[in-house]
């Protein structure tokens, strides 16, 4: 991979730091009145999700990371790995492990498209779409007529996720869920 | 982010540009009332800044001497000191200056430097005048606190910048870098700690003035011994709300020492792998002719206007910042 100098740093650039691929979140140029200039950089470690803050001398270079975000359709889980297929017509498949899937496991539904981050051609993270439609598999019976009271109850969805839903929702209904907040948006 | 098609628009709103024009007029009125002459000098010169940490821009031009490489000024210091040597008396300038690679919330590739020189004025008097100018533009009456670099650094960093070992400084810098043992120079360590651990505390409800910098950071200031016998620079920096606004010197007027500092700069540039820059030979010649004892200061006018207008970025008070030029 190419090296990037601090003056090429911009938000979204993928670089290697301490052996892990990172995405630059923020880059601030700092200089005392006279003397050495610095770049104070915030980077998200793509393996752990943690945000690091590091200072570089302006003009220093670091190695770029071979990181790519691709849209892929979820196929199936074989008990150990989760399998995805590229949506570009190539039918090329990738297998993601538990670490890469992480919290997204509860939003995985066949034939839905996810953003897979590849590092050196291996999946390191799986991001669900912001909204997803899922079926209620388990919840207390719906309360007829209770549409305005604002009460809520837990409902288990087909992927295993549990979200708070209004009291009138019944098993078998398809709901639109915001995956970022795990909140009920509406009936699909 | 802006829609891509909107980058033709100014970075400052028109109302702010009206305020900027009022601030420029009030700066001129300040100096007129004090009998300081406004001058204009070229942005191009046959020499550039040799400061190892400044990147000068240059261009090829056709001049009466043929094709020549000329440098865009990083400050109007050289030309203004030549005016002093030629007998101008006190002068000020609203100069456009250029520093390659300096882009950020508080930086822009080109910006407006308010620089002025006071032959015969004492160092302390120029510090007072600098604070007066800042208060004049901010329309505020602020307490003024003066600190020696050494004591200030000790208070915020917990190390003595003059006597701490290089190992101790490198250890102190390490957490900022994520490296256990950076091979940084003494001055790089001091600059980092000053920038990240001292400066953010300065100028909170007051004007903070830092003086007596380590001699290695004298730039174009005279040096003297502090009460403990350490060589320190007759240099001051002024901070308001954590932002460095102005840098002043009791100006070096010794041509021989000026030449030595240029040579030391060139050696450091080579060591850092920085491109070589033609030194300002006219300045050395002017010092040889004789510069009256003078104090001078350079103030980042865009930053001061940014503070006066309650903005967070210098681009908010510039008609067009570098990405839009």
TrEMBL record, chain A:
<dbReference type="InterPro" id="IPR013185">
    <property type="entry name" value="Transl_elong_KOW-like"/>
</dbReference>
<dbReference type="InterPro" id="IPR011768">
    <property type="entry name" value="Transl_elongation_fac_P"/>
</dbReference>
<feature type="domain" description="Translation elongation factor P/YeiP central">
    <location>
        <begin position="69"/>
        <end position="124"/>
    </location>
</feature>
<dbReference type="InterPro" id="IPR012340">
    <property type="entry name" value="NA-bd_OB-fold"/>
</dbReference>
<dbReference type="Pfam" id="PF01132">
    <property type="entry name" value="EFP"/>
</dbReference>
<dbReference type="Pfam" id="PF09285">
    <property type="entry name" value="Elong-fact-P_C"/>
</dbReference>
<keyword id="KW-0963">Cytoplasm</keyword>
<keyword id="KW-0251">Elongation factor</keyword>
<dbReference type="InterPro" id="IPR008991">
    <property type="entry name" value="Translation_prot_SH3-like_sf"/>
</dbReference>
<keyword id="KW-0648">Protein biosynthesis</keyword>
<dbReference type="InterPro" id="IPR013852">
    <property type="entry name" value="Transl_elong_P/YeiP_CS"/>
</dbReference>
<comment type="function">
    <text>Involved in peptide bond synthesis. Alleviates ribosome stalling that occurs when 3 or more consecutive Pro residues or the sequence PPG is present in a protein, possibly by augmenting the peptidyl transferase activity of the ribosome. Modification of Lys-34 is required for alleviation.</text>
</comment>
<dbReference type="InterPro" id="IPR020599">
    <property type="entry name" value="Transl_elong_fac_P/YeiP"/>
</dbReference>
<keyword id="KW-0379">Hydroxylation</keyword>
<dbReference type="InterPro" id="IPR014722">
    <property type="entry name" value="Rib_uL2_dom2"/>
</dbReference>
<comment type="pathway">
    <text>Protein biosynthesis; polypeptide chain elongation.</text>
</comment>
<protein>
    <recommendedName>
        <fullName>Elongation factor P</fullName>
    </recommendedName>
</protein>
<dbReference type="InterPro" id="IPR015365">
    <property type="entry name" value="Elong-fact-P_C"/>
</dbReference>
<dbReference type="InterPro" id="IPR001059">
    <property type="entry name" value="Transl_elong_P/YeiP_cen"/>
</dbReference>
<dbReference type="GO" id="GO:0003746">
    <property type="term" value="F:translation elongation factor activity"/>
</dbReference>
<comment type="similarity">
    <text>Belongs to the elongation factor P family.</text>
</comment>
<feature type="domain" description="Elongation factor P C-terminal">
    <location>
        <begin position="132"/>
        <end position="187"/>
    </location>
</feature>
UniProtKB/TrEMBL annotation, chain B:
<dbReference type="InterPro" id="IPR006195">
    <property type="entry name" value="aa-tRNA-synth_II"/>
</dbReference>
<keyword id="KW-0436">Ligase</keyword>
<protein>
    <submittedName>
        <fullName>EF-P lysine aminoacylase EpmA</fullName>
    </submittedName>
</protein>
<dbReference type="InterPro" id="IPR004525">
    <property type="entry name" value="EpmA"/>
</dbReference>
<keyword id="KW-0067">ATP-binding</keyword>
<dbReference type="Pfam" id="PF00152">
    <property type="entry name" value="tRNA-synt_2"/>
</dbReference>
<dbReference type="InterPro" id="IPR004364">
    <property type="entry name" value="Aa-tRNA-synt_II"/>
</dbReference>
<feature type="domain" description="Aminoacyl-transfer RNA synthetases class-II family profile">
    <location>
        <begin position="25"/>
        <end position="323"/>
    </location>
</feature>
<dbReference type="InterPro" id="IPR018149">
    <property type="entry name" value="Lys-tRNA-synth_II_C"/>
</dbReference>
<dbReference type="InterPro" id="IPR045864">
    <property type="entry name" value="aa-tRNA-synth_II/BPL/LPL"/>
</dbReference>
<keyword id="KW-0547">Nucleotide-binding</keyword>
């Amino acid at each position: 991979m190419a090296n990037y100098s601090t003056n090429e740093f911009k938000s979204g650039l993928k670089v290697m730091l301490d052996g892990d691929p990172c995405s630059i979140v923020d880059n601030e140029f700092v200089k005392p009145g006279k003397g050495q200039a610095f770049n104070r950089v915030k980077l998200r470690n793509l393996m752990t999700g943690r945000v690091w803050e590091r200072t570089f001398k302006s003009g220093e270079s670091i190695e770029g990371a071979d990181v790519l975000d691709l849209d892929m359709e979820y196929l199936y889980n074989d008990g150990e790995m989760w399998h995805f297929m590229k949506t570009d017509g190539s039918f090329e498949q990738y297998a993601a492990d538990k670490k890469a899937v992480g919290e997204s496991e509860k939003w995985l539904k066949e034939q839905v498209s996810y953003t897979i981050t590849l590092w050196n051609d291996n999946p390191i993270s799986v991001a669900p779409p912001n909204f997803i439609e899922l079926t209620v598999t388990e919840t207390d019976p719906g309360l007829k007529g209770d549409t305005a009271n604002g009460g809520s109850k837990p409902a288990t969805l087909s992927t295993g996720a549990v979200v708070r839903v209004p009291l009138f929702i019944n098993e078998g209904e398809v709901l639109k869920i915001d995956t970022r907040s795990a909140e009920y948006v509406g009936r699909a | 982010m802006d829609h891509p098609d909107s980058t033709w628009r100014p970075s400052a709103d028109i109302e702010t540009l009206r305020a900027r024009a009022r601030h420029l007029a009030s700066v001129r009125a300040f100096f007129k009332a004090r009998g300081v002459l406004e001058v204009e000098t070229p942005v191009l010169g046959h020499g550039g800044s040799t400061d190892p940490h400044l990147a000068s821009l240059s261009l090829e031009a056709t001049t009466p001497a043929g094709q020549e490489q000329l440098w865009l000024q990083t400050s109007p210091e050289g030309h203004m000191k030549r005016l002093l040597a030629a007998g101008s008396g006190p002068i000020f300038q609203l100069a456009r200056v250029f520093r390659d690679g300096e882009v950020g919330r508080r930086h822009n590739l080109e910006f407006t430097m308010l620089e002025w020189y006071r032959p015969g004025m004492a160092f302390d008097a120029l510090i007072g005048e600098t604070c007066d100018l800042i208060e004049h533009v901010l329309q505020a009456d602020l307490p003024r606190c003066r600190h020696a670099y050494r004591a200030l650094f000790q208070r915020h960093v917990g190390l003595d910048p003059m006597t701490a070992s290089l190992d101790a400084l490198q250890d102190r810098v390490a957490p900022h870098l994520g490296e256990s043992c950076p091979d940084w120079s003494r001055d790089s360590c001091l600059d980092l700690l000053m920038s990240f651990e001292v400066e953010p505390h300065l100028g909170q409800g007051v004007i903070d003035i830092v003086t007596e910098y380590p001699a290695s950071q004298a730039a174009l200031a005279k040096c003297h011994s502090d009460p403990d016998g350490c060589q320190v620079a007759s240099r001051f920096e002024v901070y308001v709300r954590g932002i460095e606004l102005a840098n002043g010197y009791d100006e070096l007027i010794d041509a021989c020492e000026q030449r030595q500092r240029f040579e030391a700069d060139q050696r450091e540039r080579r060591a850092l792998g920085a491109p070589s820059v033609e030194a300002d030979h006219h300045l050395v010649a002017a010092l040889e002719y004789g510069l009256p004892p003078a104090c001078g200061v350079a103030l980042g006018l865009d930053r001061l206007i940014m503070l006066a207008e309650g903005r967070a970025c210098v681009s908010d008070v510039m008609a067009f910042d570098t990405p839009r030029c």
